[in-house]
Write a structure and sequence with these properties.
By secondary structure, the protein is mostly helical. The chain has a domain at 124-177. The protein has helices at 2-20, 27-122, 126-135, 138-147, 150-159, 162-176. Helix 3 crosses helix 5 and helix 4 packs across helix 6.
Length: 177
């Protein structure tokens, strides 16, 4: 743009010089000369900018190629991480099923043991059953009493110490809720 302006100014100066030499151009000739000079200047600018533009395009293309390679590598890493994560999820799910299976098995075994204790306590005399349930862990005692015939459970409660009987009855009532 600066060159174009300088060309136009030089032409104007040239025209003034010509005017001093008493050589006069017609307006049509002047416009033709200006147009020719402007076209030559634009061609020089185009050629120079085209080379620079080509260089810039090549540099940008190289940068884009590097970014594309990095992106492809990142995609591979993400795919590998995704596969690894999926394998870990499958492993965790398998482990979870094993743990849940163990928990279910433990609950079944506990229920079986409690049922056996219920049978044993049911066949004991109420005084002996009261003595055993008094020293037993409260949760286990409540689970056993829950499965015993209510009339038998009341006899057992009557034979226990009042504090123990009250504590177990309270837990039994809270369990019922």
């Amino acid at each position: 743009m600066l060159r174009l302006l300088s060309v136009i100014l030089s032409l104007i100066a040239f025209n003034v010089t010509i005017a001093d030499d008493k050589k006069v151009y017609t307006e049509k000739e002047f416009k033709k000369a200006v147009k020719k000079e402007v076209e030559q200047t634009i061609d020089r600018i185009k050629k120079k900018n085209l080379a620079q533009l080509t260089k810039e395009i090549l540099e940008k293309e190289a940068v884009l190629d590097q970014k594309l390679k990095l992106l492809e590598e990142r995609e591979k890493e993400v795919a590998m991480s995704e596969d690894s994560l999926n394998n870990k999820i499958v492993g965790f799910e398998t482990r979870q099923k094993e743990i849940l299976g163990c928990i279910d098995k433990n609950k079944k075994n506990e229920l079986m043991r409690i049922n056996q204790l219920v049978e044993v306590i049911s066949n004991m005399k109420p005084a002996k059953a009261a003595e055993i349930l008094s020293v037993q862990e409260a949760q286990i005692s409540v689970k056993i009493i829950e499965r015993i015939d209510p009339s038998r459970a009341s006899k057992i409660f009557n034979l226990m110490e009042k504090e123990v009987s009250a504590r177990l009855q309270k837990q039994y009532l809270n369990m019922q809720q």
